[in-house]
Amino acid sequence: MLKKDLQQFKKKLEEEKIDIEKELKEHKKMPRFGTESTDPDQETDESEEYGNQLSIIQTYKSRLSDINSALKKISNNKYGICEKCKSEIGLNLLKINPESRLCKECKKKA
Fold this sequence. Notes:
Zinc finger DksA/TraR C4-type domain-containing protein; 0% strand; DnaK_N; zinc ion binding; zinc
């Protein structure tokens, strides 16, 4: 992989990391339970909103973990290598998903 490509991926990953960390901070405001409402529909809505927020937060945390892993690989000169088959991950795939851990072929098999 060319050094300029590696620098572009690193910049993109760092920008995405900042964006995700902002999103995680915004989603810390979870719905408040324990209101004095006895309306079952309102309680159901609050519970559903809480579940949705947890799902979003988990997705962000997972992406952040993948981004941190990719940044670590860049600093260890192991970026762009498939974790499963150890072959090179194609540039087209990395342009779409710079935190990708698997090559196109291994993604198809998974």
